[in-house]
Design brief:
The chain is α/β, with parallel strands linked by helices. It has eleven helices and nine strands. The chain has a nine-stranded mixed sheet. Strand 7 and strand 8 form a beta hairpin. Helix 1 packs across helix 2, helix 2 (about 20-50) runs parallel beside helix 10 (about 300-310) and helix 3 packs parallel to helix 4 (about 125-135). The protein is globular and about 50 Å long.
Length: about 325
């Protein structure tokens, strides 16, 4: 079946996120830190001690820094956005993709950051270029679906492995346009055999993580988080101006370790300042000011990827789907 609907813990989970938001968030995070913390720290040590620095597992290229939703947990929502408008140039975008191809990159790629990718009018064309150059990469698109229609799904599907539709709403039901897409794909599965379409039911006002203090509905506290974090080790985070930041929790784009307009991508990945940040974070977030109070933890795709790598199965890691509960997005 090329399309499915995911709702974390079903009706029970939805009601918990809706009526007990802070309790649901804190309980979930506590569970994930308890069960994932050791494996994440182990991967950080593996990364830092490798003879050759491992490539990123996920490359995130934000081609436009705007969103059209009102998600309460995100500073990119239309009521909270403060970033100067920026759209990536064709020249920079193609340079990044070409460099990934020259690097023989085979990991995950998404043209998405703290934004809505479909606001980029060139997004289909950009996906096509990425697929032509990175034939063995796992390319996935994550969208809130507000601008999505069946024609767009058909247009982008030849170039992606997975389409993640985050159906943000106040009630546990699909938006009409997403319902139409679901019904059509269900009736015509043969047209979508080569793409995995996942609809995630998301509560619009959900409390997730504090995103290093940037989340509008969950500001950071004085609590110091001492666990390590995967994101600086797994993700290459690129903003529309070509800056390489630390991770998706930098909603205000204050971290910058290299400018890809001037520095080759491979050099940027191992920039001295970024490597030093990784070494500090591996020993605990309290060692790096930006991360000191951040409570983000990835319990989905990245966790599966690093477990595969630690088990010696890198091929499986590169084919992992982009499905995750979405604590940070």
């Amino acid at each position: 079946m090329p399309i499915k609907i995911n709702n974390f813990l079903g009706r029970l989970g939805w009601n918990a996120r809706k009526y007990l938001p802070n309790l649901a968030s804190s309980a979930y995070l506590k569970l994930q830190f308890m069960t994932r913390g050791k494996a994440q720290k182990k991967y950080c040590e593996y990364f830092l001690n490798a003879e050759e620095t491992p490539k990123p597992n996920v490359v995130n290229i934000e081609t436009i820094n705007r969103c059209n939703s009102t998600c309460a947990f995100c500073t990119a929502n239309i009521h909270a956005e403060k970033r100067p408008f920026m759209e990536m140039t064709d020249e920079l975008y193609k340079s990044i993709i070409d460099q990934l191809a020259d690097w023989n990159y085979r990991g995950h790629l998404t043209l998405y950051g703290n934004n809505e990718p479909l606001l980029d009018k060139k997004i289909i064309e950009r996906h096509k270029y990425a697929r032509e150059k990175l034939k063995e990469s796992y390319i996935f698109m994550s969208t809130n679906g507000l601008l999505l229609n069946l024609d767009t799904v058909k247009a982008v599907q030849p170039y992606i492995d997975q389409l993640i539709i985050n159906n943000y709403s106040l009630e546990m039901k699909l938006h009409k346009n997403i319902q139409r897409i679901y019904e059509y794909v269900t009736m015509h599965p043969e047209e979508f055999e080569d793409v995995d379409i996942l609809i995630q039911m998301r509560y619009l006002q959900e409390v997730l993580t504090n995103r290093a203090g940037s989340a509008p509905n969950k500001k950071s506290t004085e609590k110091v988080v001492k666990e390590s974090c995967l994101l600086p080790f797994t993700d290459m985070w690129i903003t529309p101006n070509g800056h390489m930041g630390l991770c998706c929790c930098d909603n205000f784009e204050v971290t910058n370790y290299a400018d890809l307009n001037e520095v080759p991508l491979k050099e940027a990945w191992v920039a001295p300042e970024l490597m030093e940040a990784r070494r500090k974070i591996a020993e605990g977030r309290q060692n790096y000011p930006f991360c000191k109070h951040c409570d983000f933890i990835d319990a989905g795709m990245r966790m599966q990827i690093v477990n595969d790598i630690l088990a010696g199965n890198e091929a499986a890691a590169n084919r992992r789907g982009g499905h995750e509960r979405g604590l940070g997005k």
